[in-house]
Specification:
Distance between the termini: 68 Å
Radius of gyration: 20 Å
Order of helices and strands: HHEEEHHEEEEEEEEEEEEEEEEH
Number of helices: 5
Largest sheet: 6 strands, antiparallel
Number of strands: 19
Structural class: alpha+beta
Helix content: 10-25%
Shape: globular
Strand content: 25-35%
Length: 272
Amino acid sequence: MLKFEKLETRIRELVEIRMVALLPGRTIERAIIQQLANAMHTNIVEKSGTKTAPNIYTLVAPPSETEIWQDARLLDALRETLETVGREADLEFAATPTISVAADASLAAKQVHIIASHKVENIGPTNAIVHEAARETDENKIPENAFLIIDGRKVFPLNGLVINIGRRLENHLAIDDPRVSRQHAQLRAIKGRYVVFDLNSTGGTFINGQRTSQSILYPGDVISLAGVSLVFGQDNPPPRLDLKDTGPLASEPTDRPTAILKTHSDVRKRKK
């Protein structure tokens, strides 16, 4: 297997070649190449003599710079580079590598983080909580292949209609961090998508740097629970629907189209 230094050098060579071919005049800072190489190298898993490289990559950047990174040609060039380097290093991929872009308002200008993970590694069970009326219907359908990335390398599969997150062990996802409330947030499957709800937590729940009480999640979104970050991902997500049943947040504009669900009580209040 390639050593880290050689891995970084090879990634930089291939990226430069592809940038010239696809995006003349475009360059990528060396620090980002180092992060990409480090994310790949440190998350290689060896089992039964087979070395498997991470196949899920999330590039987290300030909101003002996410549009730059969302260029399909750029992401394809990075993805193809990872595949090539993986083959040359005799690494396996559990699935074709994917790269998504997420915004984080807490990052400084030009500051970029790259998170790598595998599909799909279970962190381990926590004590389940029984929910009334928690059954799958056409209205409440569990999104396919959804997961949360924790600590940049652990993947927690989302396979329930309701997922409780907090510091208590009774939560489906227990996070042992004093900043996280005992019952901090909840994910609910609604109309084939996960929606995050803040449970009146002390530190608040944020999506891509914007505080929210409830918000639809899209692949690449960074959820911050009082400073503890989780990345929401979904392999082969369904096409993004128009937001005819939702409305934008009234304050604190963001570069990301964020939506909140409207309840029947909200509609009645507006009519009065």
